[in-house]
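User: I'm preparing a small set of examples for a lab meeting where we compare how different chains pack in three dimensions. I only have the primary sequence for this one, and I'd like the structure in C-alpha coordinate form so I can line it up with the others. Please keep the answer compact; I'll paste it straight into my notes.
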Amino acid sequence: MVCASKLKELALKLFEINAFKFGDFKMKVGINSPVYFDLRVIVSHPDVMDTLADLLQEFIVECKLDTAGTHLCGVPYTALPLATLISIKANKPMLIRRKEAKKYGTKKLIEGKFDAGDKCLIIEDVVTSGSSILDTVNDIRSEGLITTDAIVVVDREQGGVQNTAERGVRMHSLYTLSYLLQTMLEAKRIEESTVKAVAKYIEACQIRSDGSFIKNGTTVVNELSRIGMSFEARTDLAKCPLAKELFKVIAAKKTMLCLAADLTSSEEILNLADAVGPYICVLKTHCDIITDFSEQFVRSLQSLARQHNFLLMEDRKFADIGNTVAQQYVGGLYRIADWADLVTVHALPGQGILKGLKSALNVDKPLASRGVFLLAEMSTEGALTDEKYSTATVKMATEMDTDFVAGIVCQSKDLVASPGLLQLTPGVKLQEGVDGLGQLYESPERVVKERGADVCVVGRGIISSKTPSETARIYRDRLWEAYLERIGVEKNGAAN
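Assistant: Understood. Below is the C-alpha coordinate output for the 496-residue chain.
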Protein backbone atom coordinates (compact mmCIF):
# COMPACT_ATOMS: atom_id res chain seq x y z
CA MET A 1 0.00 0.00 0.00
CA VAL A 2 1.14 3.53 -0.76
CA CYS A 3 2.00 5.20 2.54
CA ALA A 4 -0.88 7.51 3.59
CA SER A 5 1.39 9.93 5.45
CA LYS A 6 3.67 10.27 2.44
CA LEU A 7 0.67 10.99 0.24
CA LYS A 8 -0.45 13.81 2.55
CA GLU A 9 3.06 15.24 2.85
CA LEU A 10 3.44 15.34 -0.90
CA ALA A 11 -0.01 16.89 -1.34
CA LEU A 12 0.96 19.74 0.99
CA LYS A 13 4.26 20.17 -0.81
CA LEU A 14 2.51 20.39 -4.17
CA PHE A 15 0.30 23.12 -2.75
CA GLU A 16 3.33 25.00 -1.41
CA ILE A 17 5.05 25.07 -4.80
CA ASN A 18 1.81 26.21 -6.52
CA ALA A 19 1.27 22.98 -8.42
CA PHE A 20 -2.39 23.62 -7.68
CA LYS A 21 -4.16 26.75 -6.53
CA PHE A 22 -7.62 28.12 -5.91
CA GLY A 23 -9.26 31.16 -7.49
CA ASP A 24 -11.03 31.77 -10.80
CA PHE A 25 -9.34 30.18 -13.80
CA LYS A 26 -10.33 29.70 -17.46
CA MET A 27 -9.94 26.02 -18.38
CA LYS A 28 -8.99 24.58 -21.76
CA VAL A 29 -12.52 23.21 -22.14
CA GLY A 30 -13.77 26.80 -22.13
CA ILE A 31 -15.31 27.12 -18.66
CA ASN A 32 -14.15 28.84 -15.50
CA SER A 33 -12.91 26.70 -12.63
CA PRO A 34 -12.28 27.52 -8.95
CA VAL A 35 -9.21 25.24 -8.91
CA TYR A 36 -6.24 25.01 -11.26
CA PHE A 37 -3.47 22.41 -11.55
CA ASP A 38 -0.07 23.07 -13.10
CA LEU A 39 2.22 20.13 -12.38
CA ARG A 40 4.77 21.47 -14.85
CA VAL A 41 6.32 23.37 -11.94
CA ILE A 42 7.63 20.14 -10.43
CA VAL A 43 10.52 20.07 -12.90
CA SER A 44 11.96 22.99 -10.91
CA HIS A 45 11.72 20.96 -7.69
CA PRO A 46 13.76 17.74 -8.14
CA ASP A 47 12.97 16.51 -4.63
CA VAL A 48 9.23 16.77 -5.27
CA MET A 49 9.50 15.10 -8.66
CA ASP A 50 11.57 12.27 -7.18
CA THR A 51 9.09 11.69 -4.36
CA LEU A 52 6.15 11.76 -6.77
CA ALA A 53 7.87 9.25 -9.06
CA ASP A 54 8.50 6.94 -6.08
CA LEU A 55 4.86 7.07 -5.00
CA LEU A 56 3.65 6.49 -8.55
CA GLN A 57 5.91 3.46 -8.85
CA GLU A 58 4.54 2.06 -5.57
CA PHE A 59 1.03 2.77 -6.83
CA ILE A 60 1.70 0.90 -10.08
CA VAL A 61 2.77 -2.14 -8.04
CA GLU A 62 -0.28 -1.79 -5.80
CA CYS A 63 -2.53 -1.74 -8.87
CA LYS A 64 -0.74 -4.88 -10.13
CA LEU A 65 0.28 -3.16 -13.35
CA ASP A 66 4.03 -3.87 -13.06
CA THR A 67 3.87 -6.92 -15.31
CA ALA A 68 6.92 -8.05 -17.26
CA GLY A 69 7.36 -6.63 -20.74
CA THR A 70 5.11 -3.64 -20.17
CA HIS A 71 6.24 -0.35 -21.70
CA LEU A 72 5.58 3.07 -20.16
CA CYS A 73 4.40 6.11 -22.10
CA GLY A 74 3.92 9.57 -20.63
CA VAL A 75 1.22 11.78 -22.14
CA PRO A 76 3.09 14.73 -23.67
CA TYR A 77 4.34 16.89 -22.27
CA THR A 78 4.06 17.28 -18.48
CA ALA A 79 3.99 13.54 -17.78
CA LEU A 80 7.14 12.83 -19.80
CA PRO A 81 9.66 13.56 -17.00
CA LEU A 82 7.58 11.49 -14.57
CA ALA A 83 7.42 8.56 -16.99
CA THR A 84 11.17 8.85 -17.51
CA LEU A 85 11.91 8.66 -13.78
CA ILE A 86 9.56 5.72 -13.28
CA SER A 87 11.14 3.96 -16.25
CA ILE A 88 14.58 4.27 -14.66
CA LYS A 89 13.45 3.35 -11.14
CA ALA A 90 11.43 0.33 -12.27
CA ASN A 91 13.78 -0.66 -15.10
CA LYS A 92 10.86 -0.56 -17.52
CA PRO A 93 11.23 0.36 -21.23
CA MET A 94 9.68 3.67 -22.20
CA LEU A 95 8.01 4.92 -25.36
CA ILE A 96 7.61 8.54 -26.43
CA ARG A 97 4.49 9.70 -28.21
CA ARG A 98 4.86 12.74 -30.42
CA LYS A 99 2.00 15.21 -30.55
CA GLU A 100 2.47 15.32 -34.30
CA ALA A 101 4.21 13.01 -36.74
CA LYS A 102 7.62 13.99 -38.06
CA LYS A 103 7.58 15.20 -41.65
CA TYR A 104 10.98 13.66 -42.29
CA GLY A 105 12.88 10.44 -41.57
CA THR A 106 10.67 7.65 -40.26
CA LYS A 107 7.69 9.98 -39.73
CA LYS A 108 6.82 8.08 -36.55
CA LEU A 109 4.28 9.12 -33.94
CA ILE A 110 5.56 6.60 -31.38
CA GLU A 111 9.31 6.49 -30.69
CA GLY A 112 11.04 3.53 -29.05
CA LYS A 113 11.59 -0.18 -29.55
CA PHE A 114 8.46 -2.32 -29.43
CA ASP A 115 6.56 -5.09 -31.19
CA ALA A 116 2.91 -5.33 -32.10
CA GLY A 117 1.09 -6.99 -29.23
CA ASP A 118 3.30 -5.47 -26.51
CA LYS A 119 1.55 -3.86 -23.54
CA CYS A 120 1.85 -0.17 -22.69
CA LEU A 121 0.91 1.63 -19.48
CA ILE A 122 -0.04 5.32 -19.83
CA ILE A 123 1.26 7.91 -17.33
CA GLU A 124 -0.63 11.23 -17.04
CA ASP A 125 -0.44 14.18 -14.67
CA VAL A 126 -3.94 15.72 -14.43
CA VAL A 127 -7.18 14.49 -15.98
CA THR A 128 -10.37 16.45 -16.58
CA SER A 129 -12.22 14.82 -19.47
CA GLY A 130 -9.56 12.24 -20.30
CA SER A 131 -9.19 13.47 -23.89
CA SER A 132 -5.38 13.70 -23.72
CA ILE A 133 -5.13 10.11 -22.48
CA LEU A 134 -7.41 8.95 -25.27
CA ASP A 135 -5.36 10.78 -27.91
CA THR A 136 -2.25 8.95 -26.68
CA VAL A 137 -4.10 5.64 -26.51
CA ASN A 138 -5.32 6.04 -30.09
CA ASP A 139 -1.80 6.61 -31.41
CA ILE A 140 -0.33 3.74 -29.37
CA ARG A 141 -3.04 1.31 -30.43
CA SER A 142 -2.56 2.34 -34.07
CA GLU A 143 0.96 0.88 -33.76
CA GLY A 144 -0.41 -2.47 -32.62
CA LEU A 145 0.32 -2.01 -28.91
CA ILE A 146 -2.18 -3.06 -26.23
CA THR A 147 -3.26 -0.34 -23.80
CA THR A 148 -5.81 -1.00 -21.08
CA ASP A 149 -4.71 1.12 -18.11
CA ALA A 150 -3.56 4.63 -17.24
CA ILE A 151 -1.89 5.87 -14.05
CA VAL A 152 -2.83 9.45 -13.17
CA VAL A 153 -1.46 11.85 -10.57
CA VAL A 154 -4.69 13.83 -10.10
CA ASP A 155 -8.24 13.04 -11.19
CA ARG A 156 -10.36 16.21 -11.21
CA GLU A 157 -13.43 13.93 -11.00
CA GLN A 158 -15.16 15.57 -13.95
CA GLY A 159 -15.78 12.58 -16.18
CA GLY A 160 -12.31 11.27 -17.00
CA VAL A 161 -12.90 7.83 -15.45
CA GLN A 162 -16.11 7.30 -17.41
CA ASN A 163 -14.79 8.70 -20.69
CA THR A 164 -11.67 6.55 -20.70
CA ALA A 165 -13.60 3.46 -19.61
CA GLU A 166 -15.85 3.84 -22.64
CA ARG A 167 -12.73 3.40 -24.77
CA GLY A 168 -11.48 0.38 -22.83
CA VAL A 169 -9.01 2.17 -20.55
CA ARG A 170 -9.08 1.85 -16.74
CA MET A 171 -7.91 5.00 -15.00
CA HIS A 172 -6.09 4.71 -11.64
CA SER A 173 -5.47 7.99 -9.80
CA LEU A 174 -2.96 8.62 -7.03
CA TYR A 175 -5.01 11.63 -5.90
CA THR A 176 -8.57 12.77 -6.45
CA LEU A 177 -9.60 16.39 -6.22
CA SER A 178 -11.87 15.52 -3.28
CA TYR A 179 -8.93 13.99 -1.38
CA LEU A 180 -6.76 17.06 -1.99
CA LEU A 181 -9.54 19.38 -0.84
CA GLN A 182 -10.01 17.45 2.39
CA THR A 183 -6.26 17.31 3.01
CA MET A 184 -5.88 21.07 2.49
CA LEU A 185 -8.86 21.76 4.74
CA GLU A 186 -7.51 19.59 7.56
CA ALA A 187 -4.13 21.33 7.28
CA LYS A 188 -5.92 24.71 7.41
CA ARG A 189 -4.60 25.73 3.99
CA ILE A 190 -8.08 26.50 2.66
CA GLU A 191 -11.49 27.43 4.10
CA GLU A 192 -14.63 25.30 4.25
CA SER A 193 -16.28 27.70 1.77
CA THR A 194 -13.63 26.85 -0.82
CA VAL A 195 -14.26 23.13 -0.40
CA LYS A 196 -18.00 23.64 -0.89
CA ALA A 197 -17.48 25.89 -3.94
CA VAL A 198 -15.22 23.37 -5.66
CA ALA A 199 -17.51 20.45 -4.80
CA LYS A 200 -20.44 22.34 -6.31
CA TYR A 201 -18.37 23.05 -9.41
CA ILE A 202 -17.42 19.37 -9.84
CA GLU A 203 -21.05 18.29 -9.55
CA ALA A 204 -22.22 20.89 -12.07
CA CYS A 205 -19.47 20.41 -14.65
CA GLN A 206 -19.09 16.83 -15.79
CA ILE A 207 -17.31 16.90 -19.14
CA ARG A 208 -17.31 14.43 -21.99
CA SER A 209 -14.14 13.79 -24.00
CA ASP A 210 -15.61 15.74 -26.95
CA GLY A 211 -16.00 18.88 -24.83
CA SER A 212 -19.76 18.59 -24.24
CA PHE A 213 -21.20 18.75 -20.73
CA ILE A 214 -23.40 16.37 -18.77
CA LYS A 215 -26.14 18.04 -16.74
CA ASN A 216 -28.71 15.98 -14.85
CA GLY A 217 -27.86 12.93 -16.94
CA THR A 218 -28.34 14.75 -20.25
CA THR A 219 -25.52 15.58 -22.66
CA VAL A 220 -25.57 19.25 -23.58
CA VAL A 221 -23.38 20.84 -26.24
CA ASN A 222 -22.54 24.22 -24.75
CA GLU A 223 -21.64 27.17 -26.97
CA LEU A 224 -18.33 27.23 -25.13
CA SER A 225 -17.62 23.84 -26.68
CA ARG A 226 -16.35 25.72 -29.70
CA ILE A 227 -17.33 29.34 -30.27
CA GLY A 228 -16.24 30.59 -26.85
CA MET A 229 -13.05 28.53 -26.59
CA SER A 230 -9.56 29.60 -27.60
CA PHE A 231 -7.67 27.78 -30.34
CA GLU A 232 -5.07 26.72 -27.77
CA ALA A 233 -7.81 25.16 -25.63
CA ARG A 234 -9.31 23.28 -28.56
CA THR A 235 -6.05 21.77 -29.77
CA ASP A 236 -6.05 18.81 -27.38
CA LEU A 237 -9.72 18.10 -28.15
CA ALA A 238 -9.03 17.50 -31.85
CA LYS A 239 -9.07 13.86 -32.96
CA CYS A 240 -7.43 14.49 -36.32
CA PRO A 241 -3.64 15.10 -36.14
CA LEU A 242 -3.83 17.63 -38.98
CA ALA A 243 -6.52 19.56 -37.10
CA LYS A 244 -4.19 19.71 -34.11
CA GLU A 245 -1.40 21.01 -36.32
CA LEU A 246 -3.64 23.65 -37.88
CA PHE A 247 -4.84 24.78 -34.45
CA LYS A 248 -1.20 25.24 -33.43
CA VAL A 249 -0.34 27.21 -36.57
CA ILE A 250 -3.35 29.48 -36.08
CA ALA A 251 -2.50 30.12 -32.43
CA ALA A 252 1.23 30.62 -33.04
CA LYS A 253 0.82 33.03 -35.95
CA LYS A 254 -2.39 34.64 -34.67
CA THR A 255 -4.05 34.25 -38.04
CA MET A 256 -7.24 32.63 -39.31
CA LEU A 257 -6.58 33.67 -42.89
CA CYS A 258 -6.65 31.13 -45.72
CA LEU A 259 -5.49 32.44 -49.09
CA ALA A 260 -7.34 31.08 -52.12
CA ALA A 261 -4.48 31.24 -54.62
CA ASP A 262 -6.71 30.89 -57.69
CA LEU A 263 -4.08 31.83 -60.25
CA THR A 264 -3.08 29.96 -63.42
CA SER A 265 0.67 30.60 -63.36
CA SER A 266 2.94 28.69 -60.97
CA GLU A 267 5.31 31.66 -60.79
CA GLU A 268 2.49 34.01 -59.80
CA ILE A 269 1.33 31.58 -57.09
CA LEU A 270 4.84 31.22 -55.65
CA ASN A 271 5.42 34.98 -55.62
CA LEU A 272 2.07 35.53 -53.93
CA ALA A 273 2.70 32.76 -51.39
CA ASP A 274 6.04 34.28 -50.46
CA ALA A 275 4.51 37.75 -50.08
CA VAL A 276 1.52 36.78 -47.92
CA GLY A 277 3.02 33.69 -46.25
CA PRO A 278 3.69 35.42 -42.91
CA TYR A 279 -0.01 36.32 -42.57
CA ILE A 280 -1.81 33.07 -43.50
CA CYS A 281 -2.42 29.70 -41.85
CA VAL A 282 -3.47 27.89 -45.05
CA LEU A 283 -2.83 28.36 -48.77
CA LYS A 284 -5.58 26.85 -50.90
CA THR A 285 -5.06 25.82 -54.50
CA HIS A 286 -6.99 24.55 -57.52
CA CYS A 287 -4.16 22.64 -59.12
CA ASP A 288 -6.12 21.80 -62.27
CA ILE A 289 -6.25 25.45 -63.35
CA ILE A 290 -2.46 25.86 -63.18
CA THR A 291 -1.26 25.75 -66.78
CA ASP A 292 2.38 24.96 -65.97
CA PHE A 293 1.97 22.64 -62.98
CA SER A 294 5.16 20.67 -62.26
CA GLU A 295 7.05 18.79 -59.55
CA GLN A 296 9.41 21.75 -59.22
CA PHE A 297 6.44 24.00 -58.50
CA VAL A 298 5.27 21.60 -55.79
CA ARG A 299 8.72 21.48 -54.17
CA SER A 300 8.99 25.27 -54.21
CA LEU A 301 5.51 25.67 -52.72
CA GLN A 302 6.28 23.15 -49.95
CA SER A 303 9.50 25.03 -49.19
CA LEU A 304 7.57 28.29 -48.79
CA ALA A 305 5.02 26.52 -46.57
CA ARG A 306 7.84 25.36 -44.27
CA GLN A 307 9.52 28.77 -44.34
CA HIS A 308 6.37 30.71 -43.44
CA ASN A 309 4.63 27.97 -41.39
CA PHE A 310 1.36 27.46 -43.25
CA LEU A 311 -0.46 24.35 -44.48
CA LEU A 312 -1.33 23.48 -48.08
CA MET A 313 -4.91 22.67 -49.06
CA GLU A 314 -5.97 21.40 -52.45
CA ASP A 315 -9.60 22.41 -53.03
CA ARG A 316 -10.25 19.28 -55.10
CA LYS A 317 -13.77 18.67 -53.81
CA PHE A 318 -13.54 14.91 -54.30
CA ALA A 319 -17.00 13.49 -55.06
CA ASP A 320 -16.70 10.00 -56.58
CA ILE A 321 -16.73 6.39 -55.37
CA GLY A 322 -13.95 5.20 -53.06
CA ASN A 323 -11.83 3.41 -55.68
CA THR A 324 -11.89 6.39 -58.03
CA VAL A 325 -11.03 9.04 -55.44
CA ALA A 326 -8.16 6.88 -54.18
CA GLN A 327 -6.61 7.02 -57.64
CA GLN A 328 -7.38 10.72 -58.04
CA TYR A 329 -5.72 11.38 -54.68
CA VAL A 330 -2.39 9.65 -55.28
CA GLY A 331 -2.12 9.32 -59.04
CA GLY A 332 -2.39 11.25 -62.27
CA LEU A 333 -0.54 14.41 -63.15
CA TYR A 334 -1.06 16.15 -59.81
CA ARG A 335 -0.35 13.38 -57.24
CA ILE A 336 -2.25 15.44 -54.66
CA ALA A 337 -1.52 13.21 -51.67
CA ASP A 338 2.21 13.80 -52.13
CA TRP A 339 2.03 17.50 -51.25
CA ALA A 340 -1.39 18.64 -50.01
CA ASP A 341 -1.74 18.54 -46.22
CA LEU A 342 -5.49 18.97 -46.57
CA VAL A 343 -8.10 18.37 -49.27
CA THR A 344 -11.78 19.23 -49.60
CA VAL A 345 -14.31 16.42 -49.99
CA HIS A 346 -18.03 16.26 -50.81
CA ALA A 347 -20.05 14.08 -48.44
CA LEU A 348 -22.49 13.09 -51.20
CA PRO A 349 -21.00 9.60 -51.86
CA GLY A 350 -21.20 8.75 -48.16
CA GLN A 351 -18.62 7.12 -45.90
CA GLY A 352 -17.02 5.25 -48.80
CA ILE A 353 -15.32 8.37 -50.08
CA LEU A 354 -13.35 8.79 -46.83
CA LYS A 355 -12.46 5.10 -46.78
CA GLY A 356 -11.23 5.38 -50.35
CA LEU A 357 -9.00 8.36 -49.62
CA LYS A 358 -7.60 6.76 -46.45
CA SER A 359 -6.84 3.54 -48.30
CA ALA A 360 -4.50 5.44 -50.62
CA LEU A 361 -2.23 6.54 -47.78
CA ASN A 362 0.82 4.49 -46.80
CA VAL A 363 4.14 4.64 -44.96
CA ASP A 364 5.43 7.47 -47.16
CA LYS A 365 2.17 9.37 -46.70
CA PRO A 366 0.93 8.36 -43.22
CA LEU A 367 -2.63 9.09 -42.15
CA ALA A 368 -1.38 11.39 -39.40
CA SER A 369 0.11 13.74 -41.99
CA ARG A 370 -3.06 14.20 -44.05
CA GLY A 371 -6.59 15.41 -43.40
CA VAL A 372 -9.83 16.45 -45.09
CA PHE A 373 -12.47 19.15 -44.85
CA LEU A 374 -15.98 17.93 -45.62
CA LEU A 375 -18.25 20.31 -47.54
CA ALA A 376 -21.53 20.78 -45.68
CA GLU A 377 -22.58 24.14 -47.16
CA MET A 378 -21.47 26.35 -50.03
CA SER A 379 -21.25 30.12 -50.25
CA THR A 380 -23.06 30.55 -53.59
CA GLU A 381 -26.62 31.67 -54.17
CA GLY A 382 -29.03 28.78 -54.76
CA ALA A 383 -26.72 26.04 -53.40
CA LEU A 384 -28.54 22.70 -53.03
CA THR A 385 -26.86 21.78 -49.75
CA ASP A 386 -29.94 21.86 -47.52
CA GLU A 387 -30.14 21.43 -43.73
CA LYS A 388 -30.63 17.66 -43.90
CA TYR A 389 -27.55 17.24 -46.10
CA SER A 390 -25.45 19.54 -43.91
CA THR A 391 -26.43 17.72 -40.72
CA ALA A 392 -25.60 14.33 -42.27
CA THR A 393 -22.20 15.67 -43.35
CA VAL A 394 -21.33 16.77 -39.82
CA LYS A 395 -22.46 13.37 -38.53
CA MET A 396 -19.93 11.76 -40.88
CA ALA A 397 -17.22 13.97 -39.40
CA THR A 398 -18.05 13.36 -35.76
CA GLU A 399 -19.02 9.69 -35.71
CA MET A 400 -16.73 8.09 -38.30
CA ASP A 401 -13.13 8.61 -39.44
CA THR A 402 -12.57 11.28 -36.79
CA ASP A 403 -8.81 10.81 -37.17
CA PHE A 404 -9.01 11.94 -40.80
CA VAL A 405 -11.59 14.76 -40.80
CA ALA A 406 -10.03 18.06 -39.72
CA GLY A 407 -13.08 20.21 -40.22
CA ILE A 408 -16.21 21.31 -42.04
CA VAL A 409 -16.70 23.81 -44.86
CA CYS A 410 -19.86 25.73 -43.99
CA GLN A 411 -21.49 29.10 -43.31
CA SER A 412 -23.42 28.39 -40.09
CA LYS A 413 -21.85 28.54 -36.63
CA ASP A 414 -24.44 26.22 -35.09
CA LEU A 415 -23.60 23.42 -37.51
CA VAL A 416 -20.17 22.61 -36.04
CA ALA A 417 -20.47 21.97 -32.30
CA SER A 418 -17.41 19.85 -31.59
CA PRO A 419 -14.46 21.98 -30.40
CA GLY A 420 -12.04 19.56 -32.03
CA LEU A 421 -13.30 20.39 -35.54
CA LEU A 422 -12.45 23.54 -37.48
CA GLN A 423 -15.01 25.51 -39.44
CA LEU A 424 -13.70 26.77 -42.76
CA THR A 425 -15.80 29.52 -44.34
CA PRO A 426 -15.24 30.98 -47.82
CA GLY A 427 -16.60 34.22 -49.21
CA VAL A 428 -14.76 36.77 -47.04
CA LYS A 429 -14.11 40.30 -48.26
CA LEU A 430 -13.54 43.70 -46.69
CA GLN A 431 -16.54 44.95 -48.67
CA GLU A 432 -19.68 42.79 -48.46
CA GLY A 433 -21.74 41.96 -51.54
CA VAL A 434 -22.38 39.51 -54.40
CA ASP A 435 -20.30 39.11 -57.55
CA GLY A 436 -21.68 38.57 -61.05
CA LEU A 437 -21.60 34.77 -60.68
CA GLY A 438 -23.54 34.52 -57.42
CA GLN A 439 -20.61 34.33 -54.97
CA LEU A 440 -21.66 35.88 -51.64
CA TYR A 441 -19.13 37.94 -49.70
CA GLU A 442 -19.27 38.92 -46.03
CA SER A 443 -17.00 41.00 -43.79
CA PRO A 444 -14.30 39.46 -41.58
CA GLU A 445 -16.22 40.47 -38.47
CA ARG A 446 -19.49 38.92 -39.60
CA VAL A 447 -17.86 35.68 -40.74
CA VAL A 448 -16.02 35.16 -37.44
CA LYS A 449 -18.54 36.38 -34.88
CA GLU A 450 -21.86 35.60 -36.55
CA ARG A 451 -20.95 32.73 -38.86
CA GLY A 452 -18.55 31.07 -36.41
CA ALA A 453 -15.63 30.66 -38.83
CA ASP A 454 -12.26 29.41 -37.57
CA VAL A 455 -10.49 29.57 -40.94
CA CYS A 456 -11.60 32.28 -43.35
CA VAL A 457 -10.99 32.05 -47.09
CA VAL A 458 -10.01 35.16 -49.02
CA GLY A 459 -9.14 35.06 -52.71
CA ARG A 460 -9.71 37.98 -55.05
CA GLY A 461 -9.72 40.44 -52.17
CA ILE A 462 -5.97 39.81 -51.84
CA ILE A 463 -5.03 38.64 -55.34
CA SER A 464 -6.45 41.75 -57.04
CA SER A 465 -4.81 44.12 -54.54
CA LYS A 466 -1.90 46.27 -55.67
CA THR A 467 -0.19 45.41 -52.37
CA PRO A 468 -1.15 41.76 -51.54
CA SER A 469 1.16 41.58 -48.53
CA GLU A 470 -0.32 44.66 -46.84
CA THR A 471 -3.87 43.61 -47.71
CA ALA A 472 -3.26 40.15 -46.24
CA ARG A 473 -1.99 41.79 -43.05
CA ILE A 474 -5.19 43.84 -42.80
CA TYR A 475 -7.34 40.73 -43.24
CA ARG A 476 -5.29 38.86 -40.65
CA ASP A 477 -5.63 41.62 -38.09
CA ARG A 478 -9.37 42.17 -38.57
CA LEU A 479 -10.09 38.45 -38.42
CA TRP A 480 -8.00 38.01 -35.28
CA GLU A 481 -9.57 40.99 -33.52
CA ALA A 482 -13.02 39.57 -34.30
CA TYR A 483 -11.93 36.21 -32.88
CA LEU A 484 -10.68 37.82 -29.65
CA GLU A 485 -14.05 39.54 -29.27
CA ARG A 486 -15.79 36.21 -29.93
CA ILE A 487 -13.99 34.46 -27.06
CA GLY A 488 -14.28 37.47 -24.77
CA VAL A 489 -10.63 38.55 -24.69
CA GLU A 490 -9.78 42.25 -24.63
CA LYS A 491 -7.77 43.38 -27.63
CA ASN A 492 -4.19 44.42 -27.07
CA GLY A 493 -3.56 45.69 -30.55
CA ALA A 494 -2.89 43.81 -33.76
CA ALA A 495 -0.81 40.66 -33.96
CA ASN A 496 2.90 41.05 -34.47
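A couple of notes for your slides: The mean pLDDT is 88. The first helix runs from residue 4 to 16.

User: Perfect, thanks.
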